Amino acid sequence: MTRLSQRIQPALLAVIFGTALLFLEDAAWAADVARADELKAAYLFNFAKLVEWPASSLADTLTICFVGASGVHDAFKRAAGDKQVGTRRIVVRPMAGSEPRTGCDVLYLDAALPGLQLPESVNPGTLTVSDGAGFAAHGGMIELFAEGNRLRFNINLPSAQRAGLRISSNLLQLAAHIEKGGPK
Amino acid sequence: MRDAGTLKWLLAAALLGGAAHAEERDLADLSLAELLDVPVTSVSKKETRLGDAPTAITVITPDDLRRLGITSIAEALRLAPGFDVARTDSSHWAISARGFNYQYANTLLVLIDGRSVYTPTFGGVYWDSQDLTLSDIERIEVIRGPGATLWGANAVNGVVNVITREAKDTQGLMLSAAAGNADLSSFDARYGGEIGSNVHYRTYAKYFEREGLDVVDSGISDPSWHSSRAGFRADWEPAEDKEVTLQGDYYEVRGPVLGTYVTVTPPFTAPLERHELSTGFDVLGRWTQALSDVSHVSLQAYVDSYSRLQESRDTADIQLEHRFRLASRHDVVWGFGYRFSADDVHLDPASVTNPRKADLHLYTAFLQDEVTVVPDRVHITGGAKVEHNDFTGFEVQPSLRATWTPVAGHTLWGSVSRSVSTPSRFYHDTRFNIAAFPLPDGTVVELAYVPRKDLPSQKLNAFEVGYRASFDTRFSVDLAAFYNRYRDLYGLVSEPGQLELEPAPHILLPSTWAAVERATSYGTELSVNYQPRDSWRLTGTHTWLHMRSTIGDTIDKLSPENQFGLRSYSNLTSRLEFNAAVYWTSAVSALAITENLRVPAYWRVDAGLVYTPLPALEIGMWGQNLTNRVHVEGASQDSRATHEISRSVLVRVTKKF
Questions:
Q1: Which of residues 100-139 of A touch B (CB under 8 A)?
Q2: Among A71, B199, B294, B576, which one is most buried in terms of CB atoms within 10 A?
Q3: Least confident span in A13-17, B281-285, B629-633
Q4: Is residue A21 classed as helix, strand or coil in its secondary structure?
Q5: Nearest-by-Cβ selection for B41 from A131, A149, A174
């Protein structure tokens, strides 16, 4: 080895070890920086587990519809597409913007949808979730939002209650904010 | 020996490789409580619903500031189409919208959390003393066109509304340090906490030193300037329907003042070289109360006091605003306010402002109704603001706006409005010397502007239309077009010469102001957002401006005819971003002290990497003005020196605890 690379070598090694240590420390936290869509999909799966649907609409399957949000749809399908919520088998359904939204137990709306529909036009028994800003304030049931680099959610309790859904206290406790008023 | 050497490298590679692929638990297996702790960076920051706003508005987000390494509010405004931002010297910018740009431009209204930072001395903003911890900004709303109905006079061509985040959104400790060859050093610290469950607060302290710019063709560099500031914000929710906010700041800016002023003895200009200390503080309180489900009232009061080379000013302002829904189709907001401003104006040793000290009173009242003509389809907004000021008495500024959404995702809007720009202390009270020179026979002649007390306000009738559309979830377009007619613009009129004896005998050739000029301008502002994939977003902007006035090229060419911007935000990996911005500005004729300076068209390319090795640690590195070694953007109005901006680099480390 030349003299120059002999000098650089220890410095380079120190940098590599240092960087590796950073990664190890990070791994020890077991908290890797995740793609936003995978995180939203994971939240959605948990929401489905912590909400009770009215007895009248119980079926063998739990249908989760996605309007837009192809990234969250793909991530959800990968992560939970073959799983179950209680005794109900999960069915994942992508929908086009103009399709009528019937037969959905959970409806995930992409925030960037043109003319985000207010939940008035959605059927009862459907849990509406979106990452659009102001979704909960406008009557949506669960709104996902970023605070710094963490994902949080707001819940609009009266909207869910009007649709006949019962939200578990475990879910309510972890919400950043619970809207008590109706849609504005 | 060789085996040990290789082993060393293999071990390092294994460690690194192993660490990088450290246990990636399936997110779906995490409980909700665990999910709340998972950090994420996403390039698509969903905007608030701008789709139905009947104005040309752009929102600059903290994500824009963070990704591009932007270090000041003035520089952030480059991102908005329709805005013309030119750095004229080390600590001064000429910023305007839709024309009339120069260092003391008076067509913009700038508010920080509801506090107006416009000075009635010249009708503009001292950009060097407007600053905050940029990561505490919630958003910057940039509105082109008259915002007179809601914000009042002197919002003629645009409004910049800087809104900071609530204290509950800025909790914990944040430390940031940056260094570079233009932003020499800067330190930012912010701590946010809570008292009980319904009081949240934050305090911050910030210091920076910026290098002085070089003077063109001279090898001289201005000395650097420093700014220190500290402040706080506290938000209290005593009940579900009440919110109280209290915030305050204190700052000190030290910088060199390099200028010249005119004397009537040889050599006829004298240098103004001092180290200036500008200090100021402000305190603002706001109380918002919901009167019912559909009505809320808000009372805001602030005091703002500062002292700098050109003036010192104490302002107290109080405003009441009530917003309510009426019969489900009307969204009404009305209010009134009073502002008191006491000043002491002393622009330079030779200019005279008479009266030097003035107390200014401003009374305002406004009313606006947004009517839902067809729900979710057609809205019409009408309103007016009435003001009484000490220079021109009563001014009325009405506007009518309409929004039409024929199909979900496509909105057309239009507006007609009237806006005024009231005379400032400069036009109303200041004698300002421009130049002095000797005649062949030794007589000294001095040219000066002299004030005019009976000036009416300058007026604008503005007609705007716009179209906003989102096509599927990845592509959106925002286009605005305007036609402005200005009347009663101030032009110069020569007055008869007179003999003056002080400080040495000379002939004064005065010019005074007269509201005799007119101008017409029209143009377009386009913004396009395209997101080819989840991890990559492109934003393109274009601005076109055509201006014709009876004053001539001195005014018509102050702002560029074309501006173009393109920025790219991409998340290369979950930890690494590459962000770049390209700007092109066409040539202008910048207003300088004696004659306009031709500033050629220029490109500007900024690019940087932001690396987030840990969720709470961010390291950014940017190069700015990469394509030019140097370029000039505008002319200084204080000194006869033209400054150039050079290539620079910046490194910033931010850690949250």
A1: 110-116, 131-134
A2: A71
A3: A13-17
A4: helix
A5: A149
- Chain centroid to Cα A102, Å, comes to 21
A181 confidence band (pLDDT: 50, 70, 90): low
Q: Report residue B579 as tokens.
A: 């962000």
Q: Do A71 and B408 touch (CB under 8 A)?
A: no
ipTM of the complex: 0.72
Residues 39-58 of B with CB under 8 A from A: 39-42, 44-49, 51
pLDDT score, position A27 = 34
Contacts of B13 (CB under 8 A, 6+ apart): none
Mean pLDDT of B579-588: 94
Using pLDDT thresholds of 50, 70 and 90, give the confidence band for residue B52.
Answer: low
* pLDDT number for residue A31: 33
Q: What is the pLDDT of residue B651?
A: 96
The verdict on a CB contact (< 8 Å) between B28 and A45 is yes
The chain B residue lying nearest A31, using CA atoms, is B38
How far is the C-alpha of B274 from the C-alpha of B167, rounded, in Å?
Answer: 39
Q: Which of B15, B21, B35 to mutate to test the interface with A (most CBs of A within 10 A)?
A: B35
Half-sphere exposure of residue B218, counting CA atoms within 13 Å on the CB side?
A: 12
Q: What is the pLDDT at residue B149?
A: 66
Which pLDDT tens digit goes with each residue over B95-108? 999 988 877 777 88
| pLDDT of residue B566 exceeding 70 | yes
A38 touches chain B (CB under 8 A): yes
Contacts 24+ apart (CB under 8 A), A76-83: A76/A41, A76/A44, A76/A45, A78/A41, A79/A38, A79/A41, A79/A42, A79/A45, A79/B26, A79/B27, A79/B28, A80/A41, A80/A45, A80/B28, A83/A45, A83/B28
Using CA atoms, how far apart are residues B525 and B486, in angstroms rounded to an integer? 19
- E strands, B158-268, in order: 158-164, 172-180, 183-195, 199-210, 214-215, 225-239, 242-262
Q: Tell me the pLDDT band of B512, cut-offs 50, 70 and 90.
A: very high
Helices (H) and strands (E) in chain B, counts: 7, 38
| B35-59 as b/e: b if 16+ CB within 10 A | bbebbbbbbbebbeeebebbbbbbb
**Taking CB atoms and an 8 Å limit, are B23 and A27 in contact across chains?**
yes
Q: Across chain A, how many H-helices and E-strands are there?
A: 5, 10
User: Which candidate from B40, B44, B45 shows the least CB-CB separation from A39?
Assistant: B40
CB proximity list for B655: less than 8 A, separation 6 or greater: B174, B175, B176, B616, B617, B618
Strands laid side by side in the A88-95 sheet: A84-85, A88-95, A61-67, A106-109, A127-130, A142-147, A150-156, A177-179
User: Considering only alpha carbons, which residue of chain B is nearest residue A27?
Assistant: B22
Instruction: Round to whole Å and give the CA distance between B95 and B87.
Output: 8
A166 interface with B at CB cutoff 8 Å: no
- Kindly report the backbone phi and psi dihedral angles of residue A169, in degrees, each rounded to the nearest multiple of 5, phi listed first: -65, -25
Tell me which amino acid residue B433 is: N
Q: Tell me, yes or no, if B329 comes closer than 8 A to chain A by beta carbon.
A: no
* A150-156 vs A142-147, strand pairing mode: antiparallel
CA distance B98 to B84: 8
**Mean pLDDT (whole number) for A124-150:** 82
Helix (H, G, I), strand (E, B) or coil at B125: coil
> Token digits for B419?
């806006």
Interface of A with B in 41-80 (CB under 8 A): 41-43, 45-46, 50, 68-69, 71, 79-80
Contact B579, B610 (CB under 8 A): yes
Q: Name the average pLDDT for chain B.
A: 87
What is the average per-residue pLDDT within B357-363? 95
CB proximity list for B84: less than 8 A, separation 6 or greater = B94, B95, B96, B97, B99, B101, B559, B560, B563, B585
The number of residues making up chain A comes to 184
